Automatic annotation (TrEMBL):
Pfam family for this entry, one: RimP_N
Family in the record: Belongs to the RimP family.
Primary location class: cytoplasm
GO cellular component: cytosol
Species: Pengzhenrongella sicca
Gene behind the chain: rimP
Any GO BP annotation: translation
Keyword terms, alphabetized: Cytoplasm, Ribosome biogenesis
Protein name: Ribosome maturation factor RimP
Highest taxon of the lineage: Bacteria
Length: 183
């Protein structure tokens, strides 16, 4: 297990490289793996960006992070470096996470008594379209198909969300773009 001081030394070496690339250091974990140390660096796009980090950028930043760690030597002995993005499995816990999830399909668990889409159900399912002033806007989605549907968006205070996760979607067809629909 890494000490807070060794974690800070690694952060001091890594964070400027990540920031210079226009990215955010989302997480840093240092752990033992036999005689080696594993340094896991999680990077992400800035909170105002929509989309995901491309592999070329991830690879370039990974090389630069490795070079910075080699130059600063904050990790004694041999280490393995793993640089990745948060991925869809990261729970949404901070306002920045919700902002990064704009345009994504999400499942929310809500504080008791909070209404979403006119129903007090304890949960909500939809697409995040905006996050401002501590509230997110969720557009309706058909739970059975995952397709966007026409309807009135709902607004939910981030403080009313007890847990949230991005749902993996293989396709994203906006409402009215169903090729099987007849005109």
């Amino acid at each position: 297990m890494a000490t807070p001081a060794s974690t800070q030394r690694v952060r001091t070496a890594v964070e400027p490289v990540v920031t210079a690339a226009g990215l955010v250091l989302d997480g840093l974990e240092i752990s033992a793996a036999g005689r080696r140390t594993v340094v896991r660096v999680t990077i992400d796009l800035a909170e105002d960006a929509v989309g995901s980090l491309d592999l070329d950028t991830l690879a370039a930043v990974s090389r630069e992070v490795g070079a910075a760690l080699d130059a600063a030597s904050p990790v004694p002995g041999e280490y393995t470096l793993e640089v990745s993005t948060p991925g869809t499995s990261r729970p949404l816990t901070e306002p920045r996470h919700f902002k990064r999830a704009r345009t994504r399909l999400v499942r929310l668990n809500l504080r008791e008594g909070v209404a979403a889409f006119g129903h007090v159900s304890g949960s909500a399912f939809g697409r995040i379209t905006d996050v401002t002033d501590g509230r997110l806007t969720l557009s309706p989605v058909d739970a059975a198909t995952g397709r966007d549907v026409t309807g009135v968006p709902t607004h939910i205070a981030l403080a009313d969300i007890t847990s949230a996760a991005v749902e993996v979607e293989l396709t994203h067809a906006p409402a009215g773009d169903d090729p099987d629909e007849e005109s």
